[in-house]
Structure formats: structure tokens, C-alpha cells
């Protein structure tokens, strides 16, 4: 049997969940159902939201608001055709309902038709008395379209409606950053802080803007105010530590990083920064300790393994450097940075076959940096595998067609392979494109540079 809501004084959500556990059917006002459904949607409990919608529509079959929540779930689950059919029916009943236009906009957004979504949201704005959420949706659509100025203006309206809407505040600053308008961001944040002087989020963001302008003193002041506003704000301590590092104040930086560890669970990033500070202070034992703590905390953090590897590489302890980069590769063999580091270390150890293999893996996994091609060609040259060296440089030139380093190195390796015909062609081309960089060839291949053959070609092309 159906029970009236006032027979059960429990809150609607608790009462609804109680109903699901029994054979009873309770009656709820349409507004109660809306609250229940919103609760489940906000907490990501889609199955319960769908149950509530199904029951609510049996009790209130003519409720447009409940039907719109049904549409919202259909859109969320990408059942877009069914959602559009329902919206067509609802629009015949209520053409002035802004939520209909919002849901149609969501559908167009899902279909990547963001300009159509924007037009529908603008129509919803004309009909709505509460435009806050619509401006937020508009801002996101403009972001999808890379219209950062318009997105910024939309999110600014959200902040104007609710100055505690930190999500929109972050989006405003993101737009300023993308537009590289650091001055504008600083003015905006200072104006915001005049009205909200104890907003740690705004102080934190202001400090980051000052960093972008290399105004480190002002950045430190901003982070200090963020900490005054909230002495448990980890982000402010962390950013302050980074600024102190830039200023060479490594002991003070360490204090701030250690504070983040005391406030909350330790993070691998904090351990890594502390380790780097100790390394800059030439305290090798403490640097090693924190580097090891970094990879213990997060074995998948590539920067941690690279920090240990680089530590030993700088000490010219290449065997230990190789040991740790191999450990990193055992954990993540798909990381191109690890393979490149392995190649560099194996080159230092004159283990050229392994270096060649490591460079090959790095490239296959997507590392196409200029020095990767040049260093890999050097390995082939050291192995006297000149054909491979020429082939490697040809691949590199596809990515860097104007690179003088590749052009002159190719000339030298062709000469090592005794291919003077192609060497002459490549030298003429290199001189035509980058004659002022002939010193690269002179430095790496001095014996060939001094020959009459080379000097005649250079002289003929002056």
C-alpha cells in the first residue's frame, strides 16, 4: 500500500532508501523526488537516481522537472537519441523552460558541436532568472572552442555571482594564463582580494602569477598571506619552497617542503624537492636519503629514478647510474626518457651495442628530440657502423630539416664511409643553408675539414 510522506517523518532520502528495502511504497512530493534524484546524481549514484526517476514518474507522470531529470541521465549515459525525443515532447508542453535548452546544449556538446551548444545556452540565459550555472556551462563550451577570452568573461560572471566559487576562479586564472596575460591576472586577483582578503586560494594563485613574471619577492609575500589565511594550505608551502629554491635559499625551501609532510601524508614530490635542495647544498647523504624516499613513496614517479640516476652520473659512477636506470626500466619499460638515459649511460661506459639498442627503444617509444638523433648517430660512428649512422641522421632530418648539426654530421659520416660523392652533395647543401655553422664540421671532423677537398668546396661556395 502507498503511505503518505507525513506518516514517515524521516528525511526523504532515508525514507526512499528504506522503501527500497521493503515491500512498502511511500508517496513523495515531486519536489522531494527532485531532491532525492539530485542527491544521487551529485554523488555519482546513477543506478539509484534511475530507480528514483522511474518511481517518481509513476507517482507524478505529468512533472516536467522530473522528466527533465530523466533526460539528464539519458544524456549522461550517451543515450542521446532517446533524450532528444523526450525533449521534443517536453518543448511542446513548455517552450519557456530554460532547462530544455540546457539539456539540448549538453547533447550538442557531446556531439562536439560546441557553437550550437553556445547558441542554445544563450537562449537559456534569456529565459532564466538564475543564470549562474548557465554561465559556467558557457565557459566550458568556450574552452572547448579555444575561445579563452569569452570563456574568461563567462567564468568571471560566475565569480561575480558567488565569490566562493573557487572552481570558476581557477578557470578565470587558467584563461589568463593561456592568454599569457599575467598582468591582467594580477590586477584581477588583487581586485578580488580587496573584497576577500582572507582567501587563501586567491593568494596562492596570485603568487603563481608573480612567479610567471619572475617577481619572486612579491610571490613569497603572496604565499605568506595564503598561509596566514590557512596555515594548513599545503600548496602555498610547496610553491613557497619552489620560489626559495630559485633564490638559492635551500635550507628555507627544505623547511617549507617538510611542513607539507607534517601537515599531510608525505608525497613523492616533496621528497624529491628536498633531495634536490640537499644536493645543491652538497649534502650527498641527505640527498640520497630523500631520493630513495621518493621512489619508495612512488615507484612510478620517473623523476625520482632519474634524480638518483643523475646523482650517480654526475659523480661519474656510471655503473651505479646504470643499475638504477635499469631498475626504473624494470618498473616501466615503456618510458622513453628512461631508455634515453640508459643510452647515455651505456655510451659513457662505451657499451655501444647496448647504447644503440636503448636509443632505438627511446625513438620507437616517441622520443624525437634533436640530441637523441645526434647522440645515437655518435654511437653508430663509435661502432664504425657508418651506414646506420647515415640512416639515423636521415630519420632525424625528417623531424629537423633545417638542423645544421644533422647536416654537417651527415657530411662527416659519409666521408668516414668513403662516400665522397654524397658527402660533396650534402656539404654543398649544408653550406647553402647554414654556411656560418661550418665550425660544427670543423670541430667534429677536423682532419677532414683541413683537406684540400673540403677547402676547395668551401672556397667555391663563398
From TrEMBL:
Q: Source organism's superkingdom?
A: Bacteria
Q: Which InterPro entries match?
A: ChAPs (IPR015374), TPR-like_helical_dom_sf (IPR011990), TPR_rpt (IPR019734)
Q: Which Gene3D superfamilies match?
A: Tetratricopeptide repeat domain
Give me the TPR repeat coordinates as residue ranges.
98-131, 132-165, 234-267, 302-335
Membrane-crossing residues? none
| Organism of provenance | Maribacter arenosus
Q: What is the lineage of its organism?
A: Bacteria, Pseudomonadati, Bacteroidota, Flavobacteriia, Flavobacteriales
Q: Which PROSITE patterns match?
A: TPR
* Record key words, sorted: TPR repeat
Name of the protein described by the UniProt record: Tetratricopeptide repeat-containing protein
Amino acid at each position: 500500500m502507498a503511505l503518505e510522506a507525513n506518516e514517515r517523518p524521516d528525511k526523504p532520502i532515508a525514507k526512499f532508501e528504506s522503501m527500497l528495502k521493503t515491500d512498502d511504497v511511500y508517496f513523495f512530493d515531486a519536489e522531494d523526488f527532485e531532491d532525492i534524484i539530485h542527491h544521487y546524481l551529485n554523488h555519482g549514484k546513477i543506478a539509484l537516481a534511475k530507480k528514483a526517476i522511474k518511481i517518481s514518474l509513476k507517482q507524478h507522470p505529468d512533472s516536467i522537472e522530473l522528466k527533465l531529470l530523466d533526460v539528464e541521465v539519458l544524456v549522461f549515459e550517451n543515450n542521446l537519441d532517446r533524450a532528444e525525443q523526450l525533449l521534443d515532447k517536453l518543448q511542446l508542453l513548455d517552450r519557456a523552460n530554460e532547462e530544455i535548452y540546457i539539456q539540448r546544449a549538453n547533447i550538442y556538446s557531446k556531439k562536439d558541436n560546441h557553437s550550437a551548444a553556445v547558441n542554445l545556452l544563450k537562449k537559456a540565459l534569456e529565459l532564466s532568472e538564475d543564470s549562474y550555472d548557465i554561465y559556467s556551462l558557457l565557459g566550458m563550451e568556450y574552452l572547448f572552442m579555444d575561445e579563452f577570452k569569452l570563456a574568461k568573461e563567462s567564468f568571471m560572471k560566475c565569480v561575480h555571482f558567488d565569490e566562493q566559487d573557487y572552481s570558476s576562479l581557477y578557470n578565470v586564472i587558467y584563461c589568463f594564463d593561456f592568454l599569457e596575460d599575467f598582468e591582467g591576472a594580477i590586477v584581477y586577483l588583487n581586485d578580488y582580494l580587496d573584497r576577500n582578503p582572507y582567501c587563501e586560494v586567491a593568494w596562492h594563485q596570485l603568487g603563481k602569477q608573480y612567479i610567471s613574471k619572475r617577481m619572486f619577492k612579491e610571490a613569497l609575500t603572496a604565499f605568506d598571506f595564503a598561509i596566514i589565511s590557512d596555515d594548513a594550505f599545503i600548496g602555498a608551502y610547496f610553491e613557497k619552497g619552489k620560489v626559495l629554491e630559485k633564490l638559492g635559499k635551500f635550507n628555507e625551501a627544505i623547511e617549507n617542503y617538510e611542513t607539507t609532510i607534517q601537515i599531510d601524508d608525505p608525497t613523492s614530490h616533496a621528497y624529491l624537492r628536498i633531495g634536490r635542495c640537499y644536493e645543491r647544498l652538497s649534502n650527498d647523504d641527505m640527498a640520497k636519503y630523500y631520493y630513495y624516499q621518493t621512489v619508495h613513496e612512488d615507484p612510478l614517479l620517473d623523476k625520482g629514478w632519474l634524480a638518483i640516476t643523475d646523482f650517480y652520473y654526475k659523480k661519474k659512477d656510471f655503473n651505479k647510474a646504470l643499475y638504477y636506470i635499469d631498475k626504473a626500466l624494470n618498473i616501466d619499460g615503456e618510458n622513453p626518457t628512461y631508455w634515453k638515459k640508459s643510452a647515455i649511460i651505456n655510451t659513457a661506459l662505451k657499451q655501444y651495442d647496448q647504447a644503440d639498442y636503448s636509443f632505438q627503444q627511446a625513438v620507437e617509444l616517441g622520443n624525437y628530440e634533436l640530441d637523441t638523433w645526434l647522440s645515437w648517430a655518435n654511437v653508430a660512428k663509435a661502432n664504425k657502423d657508418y651506414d646506420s649512422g647515415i640512416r639515423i641522421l636521415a630519420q632525424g632530418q625528417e623531424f629537423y630539416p633545417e638542423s645544421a648539426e644533422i647536416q654537417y654530421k651527415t657530411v662527416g659520416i659519409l666521408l668516414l664511409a668513403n662516400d665522397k660523392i654524397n658527402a660533396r652533395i650534402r656539404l654543398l647543401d649544408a653550406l647553402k643553408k647554414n654556411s656560418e655553422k661550418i665550425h660544427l664540421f670543423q670541430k667534429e671532423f677536423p682532419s677532414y675539414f683541413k683537406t684540400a677537398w673540403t677547402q676547395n668546396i668551401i672556397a667555391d661556395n663563398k
